[in-house]
Write a structure and sequence with these properties.
The chain is of the alpha+beta class. It contains four helices and seven strands.
Length: 166
């Protein structure tokens, strides 16, 4: 095994530890024509940070969702690579703390807006409103970073698969 690419980006041998290969060499002979080689790619924050770059706030793991990716294994001694395509579906990956911050931000916005509407000069309402929006500012920063970095790697052949021609 020489290399493993995920969505057009080399992820093994010098990639994140969330990509593993159970053995690097298989030997096939006329009497033993079968062997197994397992490539494990764990889609987690480490892979997202390696693939997309670490964002300002949290992770870009959710950016994988809804797209198909080519996984390509390049083997020594073969003039072609072995590949397959996977599609990643969305799964809420936020921790309990992240959810609490998000829900707290929403609750703070409701309280802050209520207090500022009731009395526009209320400093407590303004303070709650400003503090409860700090996570939203960080999320906005990550989205701007995502756009400036070019977003999802493009696929040029309009086949709906990131990282490969089919």
């Amino acid at each position: 095994m020489k290399e493993v690419d995920f969505g057009g980006k080399k992820v093994w041998p010098n990639g994140p530890s969330s990509v593993t290969v159970n053995k690097q060499t298989i030997i096939l002979t006329p009497t033993n024509m079968q062997d197994d080689l397992t490539i494990t790619i764990t889609v987690n924050d480490e892979l997202a940070n390696y693939y997309f770059r670490k964002p300002i706030y949290r992770t870009y793991i959710d950016k994988f969702a809804g797209h198909s990716y080519m996984i390509e294994a390049k083997l020594s001694g073969l003039s072609y690579s072995v590949s397959d395509v996977i599609t990643i579906v969305y799964r809420d990956t936020r921790s309990g703390t992240d959810k609490a911050i998000d829900y707290g931000s929403i609750a703070g916005n409701i309280v802050g807006v209520t207090l500022t509407v009731a009395e526009s000069s209320n400093p407590i309402g303004w303070g709650i409103l400003i503090l409860s929006n700090l996570p939203n500012v960080a999320k906005l920063g990550s989205e701007i970073q995502w756009l400036l970095d070019g977003g999802l790697p493009e696929e040029q052949d309009n086949n709906g698969v990131v990282g490969g021609e089919r």
